[in-house]
Amino acid sequence: MKENKRYPWLVLSVTSLGVLLSMLNLSTLNVALPEVSNHFHAGAVASNWILLSYMLFNTVLILVFGKLADIYGRRKLYLFGLSEFTIVSLLIGFSPNIWVLILLRILQAVGGALVITNTTPLITDAFDKRRLGTALSVNVLIASIAQLAGPVLGGGLGFALGWRWVFWFNVPLGVIGVIWGYFVLRPVPGKARGEGIDWLGNITVFLGLGGLIFALSEGGIVGWSSPSVMIGLVAFVIFILAFVWVEKGARFPMIDFSLFSERAYTMANVATFINSLARSSIVLLIALFFQVVDHENAFVAGLKVLPVTIGMIIASPIVGALTVKYSPRLLSTSGLLGTCIGMCLLVWNIGPDASLFWISLGQLLIGLGTGIFQTPNTQSIMLSVPTERRGVANGLRSMLQSMGQVISTALSLMIVTSALPPRLKDTIYAGTSAQINTHDIVLISNGYRLAFIVMMVLTILAILASYFRSTGKQTNQLS
Fold first, then answer.
1. Rounded CA gap, 184 and 171, in Å?
2. CA distance 376 to 306
């Protein structure tokens, strides 16, 4: 009995290592991107795809692996994913050119997707309903700590030891995580055996999303009338329509549309996507801004984006306790309101004479709001589906969150660069080596301000989705 009481917390320790590794991998590169780009003399397009290649493949594979986990069991897929992620992280440091690095980033995304897909279901299966909110808040707290350490770690490693260590630091963490998970996690057979994978649906959604990301990444650099951009947009429309058509006749569809009959589940997922779309690129944009405009090195820029994750760390343990007393609708909507206020401060203060205090306060509010939003929103999603569908439900939630991240990154960088003259487009990724004058700083600042305005509007849409997530008892609780 005592072992049974300990087991959920041991599982949480395993998944925490996986979350820590995955989130560090994302947040370190947000700040260290100029170091990598400068080493390979990469232009704007290639620099974009250092980030986007991982995000795109991670996004689509998350949903595939969610179904595989339901069929074959979470333990073996989690351990395989963490092992593969660790090995590829080592290989990336030996990349001879930018295109090999991008290819290895795609392979790294395979392992990352396997890890992220299985963390929340492993936690949900291990904990009872009474303690699940606390466990999920710890999960968010670990992710927040990784995001806190990531920018400083990535900036410091890139500045002091070179770009390779931005990837090599993953290796010891990955080895520890694999060994610990092997001894802790119990083999549990899959609960959806007999079901298949909707490969055609996955291929069409990948091609559709890939077309959109390609068009966004190219549009701000080569112009929206470019044939390559038009091809990307046409591919997006065609393959998304094909995806809808395929799903209607699929025996085992990649998205279980029957789950969307529950309004709370539907609106929680909509809020997940829009919130991710609105806030995911904030740290990247601010880190690039300080490196280009203020000529800060990567380490100092990493310090200046800490308020976002400090806010998440403050909020995560508090909201874990609040989930017992207050409805997901109240907590999630309140968190998004805080994020919106933070966005307003960024819009107001970004510019050549940007106030570090107000920009830091804006980031802090975004972090607080995100920390308050995520735990109750995730709990609402996971508890509204049957046990045997949790892998699929979490896969969809993770996919929507990752889809928001990749589109947010492509969209925000496109907005910043689209209004710049050709000579300035590559400077966004040049870091301290950028050669710009006062007039250039004004142009660049205007691009950042426009990006933050778009993110603020998206946050307002997320507030509406969260508020209208449910009726009946939860509505009364909010009122």
1. 20
2. 24
- Report the b/e string of 123-134 with b at 16+ CB within 10 A: bbbbbeeeebbb
Half-sphere exposure of residue 85, counting CA atoms within 13 Å on the CB side? 35
Q: Is 438 exposed, middle or buried (0-12, 13-18, 19+ CB in 10 A)?
A: exposed
Neighbours of 476 (CB within 10 A): 9
pLDDT (mean) for 430-450: 76
Domain that holds residue 246: 198-252
Closest CA to 29 of 354, 329, 298: 298
Q: Are residues 309 and 445 in the same domain?
A: yes
d(CA 26, CA 65): 20
Question: Residue 222: which pLDDT band, with cuts at 50, 70 and 90?
Answer: low
Residues in contact with 164: Cβ distance below 8 Å, sequence separation at least 6, in sequence order: 92, 93, 94
Q: The tokens of 288 are what?
A: 């690039």
The reply to whether 191 falls in a domain is no
Q: Which of 5-14, 291-300, 389-398, 403-412 has the lowest mean pLDDT?
A: 389-398
d(CA 68, CA 57): 16
User: Any idea of the CA torsion for 69, 72, 73, 75, to the nearest 10 degrees?
Assistant: -90
The phi, psi pair for 188, rounded to 5°, reads -125, 125
> What is the reported pTM?
0.72
Q: How confident is the model at residue 166 (pLDDT cuts 50, 70, 90)?
A: confident
CATH classification of the domain holding 341: 1.20.1250.20
SS3 of the chain: helix, strand, coil, percent, to 5: 85, 0, 15
Give the whole-angstrom CA distance, residue 77 versus residue 65: 8
Domain boundary among 252, 279, 297: 252
Is residue 161 in a domain? yes
**HSE on the CB side for 136, CA within 13 Å?**
30
